[in-house]
Amino acid sequence: LLPCLLPLVLPAVSLPAEDVAEATKKIVEAYDNKRFEEAAKLAGSYIQTFPTSPNLPSAYLLLARSQYNLGKWTDAVAAYRKLQAVAKEKDVKEEASYYILQSLASQAGAAPEKSADRKKLITETLPLLAAFPKEFPDSKSLGEILLLQARLQIQLGAFAEASQTLDAARKADQAKEFSEDIDYLQGYAEAERARQLLADFKKADGEAALARAGQIYSRIANGSEPALALEANLQLANLDLAAGRFPEAIARLRTIPGRDELVSQLEAKLAPLRAQIAGQASPAPEKLRRIQKAQQKIEDVKNRPDLSGQALFQLGQAFLQSREYDEARIVFRQIARYGPPDILPSAEQQVILTYALQGRTSEADRLVEKYQKTFPDQKGVAALVDYLVGFALLQDAQYQEAIQRLKAAQEKGVDPRYADEIPRYIATAYQKSGQGAEALKYYGSFLADVKAGKRKISQESLEQTQLAYASALIAEKKIPEGMAQLTELTTPAHSPAIQEDASLRLAYALRTSKKLPEAAAAFATFASTYPKSANLGNALLARGDTLLEDKKTEEALAAWKTTATQLSGSPAGLDAYERIWRHYAKEKKKDLMLANQEEQLRAYPKDPRNIAAYIARGALFAEERDESQALQAYRRAFELFRELYPDPKVSPPPVATSDLAYSALEKSSDLELASAKALGNYASLADDGKKKWKESIQRAIEFLRQSVLGISSAKVSPVLSKLVTLSLLRLQSGEATVEDCLQPFRDLASQASDRPTLVAQILFAQASVPYEAGQTTLALRLYEEAYKQSLTTQAALDWKDLQRFAQALLAAGKGEEARPVFERIRKEFPAKVGTKDPRQHAQAAALFGLGQIDFQANRKSEAEKYFAELTRDYPWSDKVQEANFLRAQALAEAGNYDGNKKNPAAFELWIGIIESPNASNEMKAKSMLAFAQTLETLASKKLTSPQLDQGVGKPPLDPLDLAVSYYQKIDLYYDNLPELSGQGLLRAAKIRRTQQKNDDARKLVTSLLAKYPTSSVATEASQLLQSLP
Fold first, then answer.
1. What percent of the chain has pLDDT over 90?
2. For the chain, which end, N or C, has fewer CB atoms within 10 Å of the first or last residue's CB respectively?
3. How far apart (Å, rounded) are the C-alpha atoms in residues 901 and 889?
4. What's the pLDDT band for 663 if we cut at 50, 70, 90?
5. Cα 202 vs. chain centroid, distance in angstroms?
6. Distance between CA 333 and CA 313 in Å, rounded?
7. Nearest 5°: CA angle at 520, between 519 and 521?
8. pLDDT of the residue at 282
9. Is the pLDDT of residue 268 over 80?
10. DSSP reduced 3-state for 297
11. Could you tell me the CA-to-CA distances from 536 to 297, 445, 514, 519, 526 in Å, in that order?
């Protein structure tokens, strides 16, 4: 309520002064006491009675203000315009202009959303708003008027103009009264603009706008204005829901305060200012203005719907979308019990739907019956439940039950939004249950019923069903019949949308039937016939794909280049660029690949898919051994990711994009590790070489550290596995102790302390370091502690670490505890036999482990079943050779050294492993060691063997000399296995000493100490060297 600004004076004409004074006094008294209806009537009467009164401007002012306070926007505008005509004071004219604009905006807001009336009112008001700053450039209301102008521009979808207006409002708002309101509108404009861009397939720009909106809303949500913070949190929840970030949305929605709580917050914020002016005789106008605006905001909150109810409904929807149906049901039941009456039916419907979506048909059916009695005017719920239950059953692979419920929904007459989908779902249920012929029969019968008038459906629904029928014919290999149906649907007798859809499907059908030239021509025809189609990009891309399939490479490349140019800025244009450079990458045409990548980067500078381009570039350079260029490309990939998502907590990136970016760090680590290995064995390097080796290793560790902390939980185990491999290299090279190698894992666990699942994964992986170092007691303790934690947090673990854990249990005599670990590997890493799925290695390891358990428990027949399955399904696996090694050891212990090809004994099995291309180097070295040790046994027992034969007429080999030869081969071929190589050289030296060949023994021991100083036999070798004469 504003005080009267104009002085009230007595008229100079001969009117009864007491009448004028009394009339004036009554108007002012009614207005001051907020009796606006009375004030408006009195002011109107005054104007009619005293048309020449000098107080006429004051009367119009009070009339206009009263009409404005009553929400009579049209009358208020008329009164304020009269005031503009009769008033002379500039501040009164400014007030009139200000409230005319506010009234017009309110009038537009009262019109139905998206109505022609609202659009017309906004369009007429915007020029008046634009004129206000020119007429009153020094107005204190300038910021507020510009804010109003931006709000109306946003309602018209003029987002670019709104952003400019908001920038002007920010400059005009020198007192920072509206800074958060301006920010909120800026966020809203960005969000709406993002939706528009995404609808226009401008994904990169749209996602960037969403990110900016999220950052703005986040700032407001943490700001000092409770009402705006609430609305910002609602907007952030909407962004989270749209992006599928359901946990984040749920967390936000739970923080939304109710209306009473919000009013209390606003009152508490206003209380200090009220206290300041309470004892002041003449409070500063600025403070009064601030109080008035704050009070108006409180009144607005009191008079509008309680947004916490909206938030609660959104919370229920978030639970629904994240398939947490029990939680959703609790929320909707609370709304139904305590919410306003107008949303009660909707809340009850949602409760029913939670049961339907869970497939809990009896509960859903019971509640539908109750609902229909309570809300008899609400139609279609029963059919909708049948539809949803049918769909849930279809998803749950209960096809016959799904067909029954979907047919029931069809008979009851489901909402037209779902009617088109039901025939397709019924047919899909038939097809998935292996009844393709029944699906086609159903389509035929359904369409025949429609044609005969037995079923009433819309023309659009009929055409959609015909389209689905045609697609089903093609899926069932009845391609000519399907193409005939599609051809008929392209005729003018059908709607333009169906003609368009059928034309594109016909082109795909031609491609499926391998009529490639005709398919390419059909895609081209579609593109020229429907240049505005949303599927234009798909058609142009498919034309290029078809030409490539037809071995017309140059034409395919030309087609994709045309697409990239024609649809520049769209996802299809980006797809075209990717197809081009990926083709050149496959053909190893580096220069052409790089040139086309550069074109993509110029056309789509901020698109997340450029991350993949940089990674592919890095891979190409790495293949050419240009590590510097490769590292640069990987670094740029990760830098782009950081630029696009500067604050992942505010605007989280898609998981796939994030994982791809962090894979660039993994690849960088691989390159640094390769650089270290290229320098040579650490122990034999000069000081400068050792320094470079360490620096490369430290950079590799840092890359992996960042990747572990950033990559998704599902992808983190393989990264940790790489850190284990890197740690083992440090350990085996002598550069670090076990304790040194464990430190990076401990640091990571500390940095991830607020993420228990990740901590469990890190701690489990670290146990592999002492395991591989031979410290099995420490390893087993670490494994068991971390494994318990991983079960609690349901952490995904790498199969190699699980295999090591199981082997550690086996080594400790805990075979039956190891069994469920191997079985977990089989369950969590499924792979189809005979494919290129890398998880086949996990399956082979699990089979071997299960066989090993039975083998060590002397259940040989059970073990052989696992080994037979291993050999049958994974003959290429090194685990087959490990099984042979187990057999060889058992045969050797039983004294069965020699056999034949049909019935191999220990020696034949070891030789098979040594010569196998599938055996690991470690297994070959172990077999050589075991072979040589058994030769020593032959010598001690004075036994002979065909392995010692040199041929007719030649004396047999000395078993000890042959053993030394095998020991030396381990060192010669497998010096990267220091433990086995060291053991071999030591045994060879001992043999030479017993043969009195001390010089040979000395050379062997000296070589061992120089090459393998960290080997467990180094101390014994040193003692042997000192004992030699």
1. 41
2. C
3. 17
4. very high
5. 19
6. 10
7. 90
8. 65
9. yes
10. helix
11. 49, 34, 22, 15, 8
Model confidence pLDDT, tens digit, residues 45-71: 888 888 887 778 888 888 888 888 888
Q: Are 354 and 320 in contact (CB under 8 A)?
A: yes
Could you say which DSSP state residue 515 is in? -
pLDDT in tens, 146-158: 888 888 888 887 8
Residue 600 CA to residue 573 CA, distance in Å, equals 9
Q: What are 7's two structure tokens?
A: 């002085």
N-term to C-term CA, the chain: 114
On average, the pLDDT of the chain sits at 86
- Provide the CATH topology of domain 1-110: 1.25.40
Buried b (16+ CB within 10 A) or exposed e, 30-66: bbeeeebebbbebbbebbeebeebbbbbbbbbbbbbb
Amino acid at 621: F
Tokens standing for residue 770: 């002492």
Instruction: Give residue 465's identity as a one-letter amino acid code.
Output: T
Which H or E run includes 527?
Answer: helix 516-529
Nearest to 930 by CA among 899, 975, 887: 887
* Domain regions of the chain by residue span: 1-110
User: Up-side HSE of residue 845: CA atoms within 13 Å toward CB?
Assistant: 25
The dihedral formed by the CA atoms of 704, 706, 709 and 715, expressed in degrees to the nearest 10: -50
**882 token code pair:** 């490990």
Give residues with Cβ within 8 angstroms of 137, minimum separation 6: none
d(CA 31, CA 4): 10
Select from 693, 718, 695 the least CA-distant residue to 707: 718
Q: Which amino acid is at 534?
A: A
DSSP labels for 937-951? HHHHHT---GGG---
Tokens of 606: 């901020």
pLDDT of 311 above 80: no
Write down how long the chain is: 1029
Phi, psi of 476 (to 5 degrees): -90, 20
Please tell me whether residue 829 adopts helix, strand or coil conformation: coil
Question: Is residue 262 within 8 Å of residue 226, measured between CB atoms?
Answer: yes
Instruction: Name the residue among 693, 755, 758 with its Cα closest to residue 726.
Output: 693
> CA-to-CA distance for 505 and 511, rounded, in angstroms?
10
Q: Rounded to whole angstroms, how far apart are CA atoms 889 and 479?
A: 61
- Written as one string, the DSSP assignment of 78-104 is HHHHHHHHH---HHHHHHHHHHHHHHH
CA distance 602 to 179: 36
- Cα angle 280, 284, 287 (rounded to 5 degrees) comes to 100
pLDDT, tens digit (0-9, with 9 covering 90-100), for 584-625:
999 999 999 999 999 999 999 989 999 999 999 999 999 988
Token pair, residue 667, equals 């690849």
Distance CA 485, CA 475 (A): 13
Q: Could you tell me if 989 and 1005 are in contact, meaning their C-beta atoms sit under 8 angstroms apart?
A: yes
Cβ pair 935, 911 in contact under 8 A: no
Say how many C-beta atoms besides its own lie within 10 A of residue 333's C-beta.
16
Nearest in space to 315 (alpha carbons), one of 416, 207, 233, 425: 233
Span 207-236, mean pLDDT? 81
- Fill in the amino acid letter for 935: L
**Cα 108 from Cα 152, distance rounded (Å):** 9
Arithmetic mean of pLDDT, 392-413? 80
pLDDT tens profile 488-545 = 999 988 888 889 999 999 999 999 999 999 999 999 999 999 998 888 999 999 999 9
Residue 913 CA from chain centroid, whole number = 46
d(CA 86, CA 81): 9
| Cβ 821 vs Cβ 805: under 8 Å | yes
Is residue 114 over pLDDT 70? no
